[in-house]
Every structure is written in structure tokens, then in C-alpha cells.
Design a protein that fits this description.
Layout: E1 6-11, H1 16-32, E2 36-40, H2 43-53, E3 62-64, H3 70-77, E4 80-85, H4 90-104, E5 107-110, H5 115-132, E6 135-137, H6 145-158, E7 161-173, E8 182-183, H7 184-195, H8 199-207, E9 226-228, E10 231-237, H9 242-257, E11 263-270, H10 273-290, H11 293-301, H12 303-306, E12 311-312, H13 318-321, E13 324-335, E14 352-361, H14 363-381, E15 391-393, H15 395-399, H16 404-410, E16 414-420
Helix pairs in contact: 1-14, 3-4, 4-5, 5-8, 6-9, 10-11
Transmembrane segments: 273-292
Protein name: Saccharopine dehydrogenase-like oxidoreductase
Domain Saccharopine dehydrogenase NADP binding: 9-137
Amino acid sequence: MVEQRLDFVIFGATGFTGKYAVKVAAQLAKEKKMKFGVSGRRKQALEAVVKEFASDIEDVPILIADLKDQESLKNMTAQAKVLVNCSGPYRFYGEPVIKACIATHTHQVDVSGEPQYIESICLKYNKEAEEAGIYIVSACGFDSIPCDLGIIFAQQQFKGEINSIETYLSVWTTTKVNDALVHYGTYESAVYSIANFHELRELRSKLYPEKLPQLWPKLKTKRFIHKCPVSEGWSVIFPGSDRSVALRTQRFLYEKYKQRPIQVQTYVTFKSLFMVLSTIILGLIFVILSKFEFGRNLLRKYPTFFSGKFVSHESPKEEVLDKVRFSITFQAKGWYEKLADPADKHKNPPNKVLITEVTGKNPGYGATCIMLLLSAITILKESDKIPGTGGVLSPGAAFGKTSLIEELNKNDIQFRFLTSV
């Protein structure tokens, strides 16, 4: 019976992100009075993780499951109310877990930042998830809760009607570091995501057969290096999954609640022109190499070289990651007045600007796992505030009406109102 299940199980608990998730789970489980387990292929390795990161938690069950054995996955998911999936790249390893969750009526959250995977799962399994009465929510980490829920937060603060939001991401360290900041697994996911970017056009034509209403004025993309008053430094288009996840949420809000969809563009800001030019050059090399098998092999073999020393096969040191800070600044433009129909057009140009931000530390792992575990807990505690009775949802669609933003604020991921004009 569902009542006898563990509140959540962390699958892939011996991986780098999985270990962080166990550490965060141990803290939150005590605070929220919840029961969790860990899962993976190797019992001895799982026991070591529990001993290191959850030694003060009484009886953390260890479940053995292998991605090559579907029955073992179903045995695992059948013992959880929510499956917290930390086993990526999800392009290769995510779908068997989704199938097991549907078969056993188990909710699932993960930290995938791979648009092709996220949107293909929505296309393939949304109806089955609805029928099973479960929520499947990807992108529940730094990709892309700060951006997606940050836009929801801006909507809540705006008190009018938003036409467009531009986001500006900044990441920096509080002291000079010479060590890698990104684990290889995260980097490998990016390699395959960029290599298969071409899949998105056909995928989206199937997923979104109906077009959204034409919005005015149309948000113009700043395609070149530029400066913006709300972000200190030089900015370029951010190539991550934030925009695709946010647009999924906006489409959902339009289709579900007839809410005017917001136009979104995402940028990343660098402190110096040298840094942005260096990043563009490395990015172009990365994109070109990712298109060929030979190039992908090079990228995988020499991650430190092709990432400018930000990535390594070695696990980043926790004391180094804790020195990393991030902020996303949101510039929302719209109108003080709100029209009755989302397809209606305002007669005048936007007359209101709102600036908000989301800030935190250790975005790739520490903050990511806080977001991930709190997402799982929110499904358990506030399912009555999540739309429908199941489905494959984006974070904003799933958690926009819950208390997740408030819970993140309590855990050092701050959503702030800055100014309004």
C-alpha cells in the first residue's frame, strides 16, 4: 500500500549529485519528520554513503536496483511515494525509471537539464502519468527552478500584466580557486544535449501542435555581446535549458488558466569582456566538436581542457563549491492594467518595469539538491495545490501555487523584490 511506502527514495545515491542529495535528505528528513531510502547497484557503496552522510538517521533502507533490470527498478519504485532520480545523463538512463514509476504509481523528480529528454518524456508519457495519478517533474535543480520559479515570483509581484521577462545569470566565487567547479557527469549531459539539439524542432512540432497567440510588442533578442543596466558586466544569450523550461510553463499557464503567456529570453553575464570572449570561443569549439562522434570522444576524454579547467573527472571539492555564488536578475516589462482576454492587445507600449532576483550558493550541487528534495517533499505535502491529479509537468507548472518558493527562502535560496517603476 502507498501509506506503507517510504516518503522518498534517492536513486543513484552513490554518484556525485546523489551523495549531495543524501546529505540534504538527512537534514530535511529530520526537520520534516520523513522517512527516506537510498538506491543503486552496489550495496557496499550505498552503505558507505549512508554512513558518511546520514549516520545520525536511524534505519535508512538500502534498495538494490539496476537500470538494465526493469523488475529491479519496479521493486525499488514500489517502495517509494516519490522517486528522486539522480542517475544521469537522463538521455540514456532516465526513461526506464519513468516506466517503472508509472507501473508502480510513484511520483518522480529529477535534475535533468536536457531539453530533448524533458520534452520527449512529456510527449511520450504525459497521458500515462495522468492515468497513473503521478507527477513527473524534471529540471528540479539549478536547471531550472531559479529561472522558472523566479518568473512565477515576478508574476506574483507585478500586480499588472507582464509582456516579457529577460533574465541575467551571474556566477562567481568569493575567492580565487584553481580547482574544477563542475563534475564530469554534468558536463557529459551537456555534450549530448548540444549534439542532439536538432531533435527539438520535430519534437516540439508534435508536442505543441497549436501555436500560442501573437504577442505585442514582440520581445527582441539581443544576439550580440551587450551591457544591461540590471546586470554588471557583459552579457550574451544563455544556452542552457532555462528558457525552454520557462516557455513550457508559460504555455501550460495559458492552456490551463488562460493566462497571458510571457515572452522570455535568458542571458548570462560575465565580469569582463575577456571572459565573455573566451567563453564564446570555447563554446563554439564545444558545439562544433559535439556534432561528430570523434569530437564527442575528444570532449569526453579531455573535459578539463575543453572547459577552460572548470570540469574534471575528479569530484569537485565541497569547500571549493561552497565559495560559488549565483544570482539571476529578472527584468519584467508590461502594463499596470490587465486585459480580460490573453489574446487581446494593449493599445499602448508597456508602461511598467519590475526588477527581482534569485540568489544562492553552490548552485550546481548544494542548492540543486535542496531544490530537488524540497520539490519531492512539496509533492508529498501539497499535492492538492498542484494542477490536476498527475502528468509530466515543468517546475513552474507543478509548484507555482505551492509554498516551494517560501521553503527555498528558508534554505538560503532567496527570491527578492528589488524595484518597480
